[in-house]
Amino acid sequence: MATHFFGLTNRTYRHSHAVGRAEFAGTGFRNPTDMAITPDGTVYICNRSYENRPDGVHVTVITLDEEYITEFGAYGEADGEFMWPTSVVLDSKGNL
Question: Cα–Cα distance between 16 and 1 in angstroms, integer?
């Protein structure tokens, strides 16, 4: 088991299985670095990708039941883009 601290909340998670595939887009993950889970069970996964494949930089959104919702973001410096993201975080209202 691993204990993660989200703000002032202490939650413990137990690994049960893996989800997704090693892909650069869609239902896959490429070098995921962090995740955040909203109170309604929406999961945001930060994908950092690799220097030689910046097309994999994005945030994947799935449910706790492993249903793919969407992905957003891309590699870059403009609005909606990320330069090698390392984490995602939720505020007290569940906003990313």
Answer: 10
> Distance (Å, rounded) from C-alpha 70 to C-alpha 84?
20
Cα-Cα end-to-end distance for the chain: 25
Structure tokens at 7: 């703000």
Taking the C-alpha atoms of residue 76 and residue 62, their distance in angstroms, rounded to an integer, is 23
Contacts 24+ apart (CB under 8 A), 54-60: 55/24, 55/25, 56/24, 56/25, 56/30, 56/31, 57/82, 57/84, 57/85, 58/25, 58/82, 59/85, 59/88, 59/96, 60/20, 60/27, 60/28, 60/29, 60/32
Q: What's the pTM?
A: 0.74
pLDDT averaged per 10 residues in sequence order, the chain, 96 residues? 51 64 68 88 88 85 89 92 90 86
How much is the pLDDT for 94?
84
